[in-house]
Amino acid sequence: HLARPTGGGFAIYMGGLEQEYTRRLALMGDLHRAITENELRLFCQPKVDIATRAFTGAEALVRWEHPQHGLIATAEFVKLAEQAGTITPLTHWMLEAAFSQGYAWQEAGTARTLAVNLSVHDLYSPGLVDRIAGLFTTWGLSSDLIQFELTESALMTDPELAQQTLARLKDLGVTLVIDDFGTGYSGLSYLQRLPVDGIKIDQSFVMPLVTNADSEVIVRSTIELGHNLGLQVVAEGVESRAVWERLAMLGCDAAQGYLIAKPLPAERLPEWEREWALV
Ligand code: C2E
Ligand code: MG
Ligand code: MG
Ligand code: MG
């Protein structure tokens, strides 16, 4: 259960801009501490192949277990960290955690991909690719076990530079996926030039797939577009059987969402896998 931070220096009950500012400042200070005090957690959300139901990989999602405030909403503190320009330490923490987890899977012989989200700041930070290359060397991890998700809007912030960074990442042998696809207004010609392997259709189109005709048109044409460009198409936010069936009919490759599994600590994945095999 996600709790919004209350009490202490957060004071959200007071409302108003000044209080909001104070709350954000406190949260930022806390986030810095969260990293040094080891309060961040790596959660994994499985991604499955729609045709075969096979578990092919997971997305790495950060969680923050605050000692006083409990679990803090990820979208909120990630956005805050991005705005404050302090996402870099969080990204570094996440990369370490993801490589460590990937290594454990590789050692156990249950090799599957783990997808790490990179933020707009990471994409344009000069040291990122070297850091990632260093992690591959340190952990001795096979490059096809790590994916990166980059949001369409982050790529569009500086399309030229993004293209260069993606090309350098691609040289490491990793898989690249455009996240939240459909929300970032990238042009067709740009998409064609990007060295990516897949797209993830944003959940805002996937959730209303069977109830809204416009969503159906968007999802259908996105799948077609992706396939015409030779890309793997993943749907995020799959919450119902009906949406799953429709995606299968439309030829979507893979699915992620609460219907399949919520984000879980890695050690709970085997239990989920047993249940998934039975459904
Ligand atoms: P995202 O990369 O698009 O991740 C998908 C989000 O949708 C996750 O939220 C996930 O828990 C949620 N979700 C998945 N399936 C369903 C579903 O069926 N229904 C609904 N309602 N939601 C679903 P989360 O974990 O709160 O993360 C929010 C965003 O924060 C992520 O969006 C991602 O952009 C960012 N984020 C999370 N972890 C990291 C990280 O380590 N680094 C960076 N840079 N960003 C991160
Ligand atoms: Mg993502
Ligand atoms: Mg996404
Ligand atoms: Mg999304």
Compile the SSE list and pairings.
Blueprint: H1 17-36, E1 40-49, E2 55-66, E3 70-72, H2 74-84, H3 87-108, E4 113-118, H4 120-123, H5 128-139, E5 146-151, H6 152-157, H7 159-171, E6 175-181, H8 188-193, E7 198-201, H9 203-206, H10 213-228, E8 232-236, H11 241-250, E9 254-256, E10 264-265, H12 269-278
Parallel strand pairs: 2-4, 4-5, 5-6, 6-7, 7-8, 8-9
Antiparallel strand pairs: 1-2, 1-9, 1-10, 2-3
This protein binds ligand C2E and magnesium ion (3 copies).
Protein name: Phospholipase
Domain EAL: 24-277
Organism: Noviherbaspirillum denitrificans
Description:
The chain has 279 residues and is of the alpha/beta class. It has an 8-stranded mixed barrel with strand order 1-2-4-5-6-7-8-9. One magnesium ion binds next to loops. It comes from Noviherbaspirillum denitrificans. This is Phospholipase.
